[in-house]
Amino acid sequence: EPEVTQTPSHQVTQMGQEVILRCVPISNHLYFYWYRQILGQKVEFLVSFYNNEISEKSEIFDDQFSVERPDGSNFTLKIRSTKLEDSAMYFCASSDSVSPQHFGDGTRLSIL
Amino acid sequence: AQSVTQPDIHITVSEGASLELRCNYSYGATPYLFWYVQSPGQGLQLLLKYFSGDTLVQGIKGFEAEFKRSQSSFNLRKPSVHWSDAAEYFCAVVENSGNTPLVFGKGTRLSVIA
Prior knowledge:
The complex is a heterodimer of chains A (112) and B (114).
Chain A: E1 5-7, E2 10-13, E3 19-24, E4 31-37, E5 43-50, E6 53-57, E7 65-68, E8 75-79, E9 88-95, E10 102-103, E11 107-111
Parallel strand pairs in A: 2-11
Antiparallel strand pairs in A: 1-3, 3-8, 4-5, 4-9, 5-6, 7-8, 9-10, 9-11
Chain B: E1 3-5, E2 10-14, E3 19-21, E4 24-26, E5 32-38, E6 45-50, E7 56-58, E8 64-68, E9 73-78, E10 87-94, E11 103-104, E12 108-113
Parallel strand pairs in B: 2-12
Antiparallel strand pairs in B: 1-4, 3-9, 5-6, 5-10, 7-8, 8-9, 10-11, 10-12
């Protein structure tokens, strides 16, 4: 069964540094998402992406965040200048117009 | 705004016992409803979904869920729990199955004892 893959599985970064989280969505999916889960809390929506532009974003997704689909397969989340409170599990998901969202295994981001 | 409530933070059941995890949602129309499971250190795996039709839906790993409009509920059930079912379970709701963001509940952690 096709799956969403995320790299790296764990990223440790110094506060203030830029970080890029990578995702390869399921190949025939057209809608892409980023969610995050702070330790012990619920999964929260960050941003959705369709047709090479952001469809919707939450209040969490401020100017420090950006997303990009640099080629036909990757979907990236960039955090420009990381803060301690950005430490979380970040999940990528993809879907087509009728399917449920399929999630990757996540990237654990630790900010020191 | 949509919201999802999972009233039980942590549930412990004995292996072989039945299980019911509660989920209530707040939404004006009939939403699309999902249950996801997250094993430690893993991603979110879809257990089952409800879009329309039969209100009792079957999922993977022997799970089922029943949509009750009158109670705004979508409870997850399993008749006999296995030790490997120990995980975090998340109920989620979305306005439609397309590109609308999922709204998750806070999750219920299931522990299974021998």
